[in-house]
Amino acid sequence: MQTVAIAGVGLIGGSFARALRQAGFTGKILGVSSPNTVKLALEYGVIDEATPEQEAFARADLIYLARPVSSILETLDAIDAVVRPGALVTDAGSTKVDIVRRAAKAVRNAVFLGGHPMAGKETRGVSSADPDLFRGRTYFLTPQPFSQMQLPSVMRFREWIQRIGANPVPISPEEHDRLVAFTSHLPQLASTALAAALAGSLDPSQARMGAGPGLLDTTRLALSSYDIWADILQTNQPLVAQALDLYIDKIQEIRASLGEPSARQYFEIAEKFTKLLRKRSV
Q1: How many other CB atoms sit within 10 Å of the CB of residue 33?
Q2: Are 92 and 116 in contact (CB under 8 A)?
Q3: Could you tell me the fold of the domain covering 175-278?
C-alpha cells in the first residue's frame, strides 16, 4: 500500500490519516474534500496533497470513503470508471446494508470492503482529528462474501487496522445494522430526546444550575449534529424504530412501577448489564 486517498477529511477520515502515520505508514495520503477542509488538513499535516476526486481515485491503492452515507452511495456509483484495477475501496459509513448492496452492483474493477469504526466524538471536522481515535475500539468489516477476508488487499488492510490499535471484527451487513441500531443509534436518540424534553420544560440557566454529572453524561450525545445522523436514521429506519419501540415499552413499564417495590427489578437488571458492558474481555 503506497497511496491512500481519503474522501472526506473530517473527524473520521482525518483521524484515519493521522493514525496511519502514527502506525508507520510512509506512503502518500491524498485528501479529497471541500477547499477549506483540505487547506486545513494540509496546514495540520493530516494529508500530503489536496487532490481532485477522480485523480485521487485513479492513483490510490486504498480508497477510504469517510463521507455521509448518501455521499458514499453516490461515490460508489461513479468510482468504477476511474479506480485503479485491483485497488481496495472501503468506507466508514455507520450503516452497511445499503452501501454493501450498492457496491456489489457498482464496483467491478476494484475490491470493495465495507467498514465501520465504532469511534467518534461530538465535535466534527479535521481540527478534531485524533490519531488515537480508533485505539481499543471495534472496527467492523462487512465482507461479501465472507471469503473476501482472505484476499491479499483485505488482509493487508486488516493488518493496518490492527496497527492503528483497533480490533477488526468481521460481521454481515445485516447483523451490523441490527446491532448498531441498539448500541449506537438508540443511545443517540435517547440522549437527543432527553435534551429536547428538558429544553421544552426548563430555562437553560435554571437547568445549568441544577445539572450534575449525570445530566451532563446522559446528554453528551445530544451535541451531535443532525447533518451526521440524517442518513444513518434514514438507511436504518426499520431497525431503529424497533429499538425505539423496545425503549419506549421499558420506560412505560418503569413509569407504571413508580413508587412500587417492583421498580427494584429494573435497577438490578440495569446494574448487572452495565457492569458486564464495562467489563474488559480477557
Answers
A1: 23
A2: yes
A3: 6-phosphogluconate dehydrogenase C-terminal fold (1.10.3660)
pLDDT per residue as tens digits for the range 215-271: 999 999 999 999 989 999 999 999 999 999 999 999 999 999 999 999 999 999 999
With CA atoms as reference, report the closest residue to 34 among 72, 3, 7, 65: 7
Cell of 260: 412500587
CB 3 within 8 A of CB 27: yes
- Count of beta carbons in the 10 Å neighbourhood of residue 274: 10
Residue 165 identity: G
Least confident of 17-21, 126-130, 134-138, 202-206: 202-206
Alpha-carbon torsion (149, 153, 155, 160), positive or negative:
negative
Q: What is the pLDDT of residues 87-128, one digit of tens each?
A: 999 999 999 999 999 999 999 999 999 999 999 887 789 999
Q: Given CATH 2.60.40.1180, say whether it is the number of domain 3-171.
A: no
Give the pTM: 0.92
Residue 242: count of CB within 10 angstroms of its CB: 15
Give the up-direction half-sphere exposure of residue 35: CA atoms within 13 A in the CB hemisphere.
Answer: 0
Domain boundaries, the chain: 3-171, 175-278
pLDDT at 282: 39
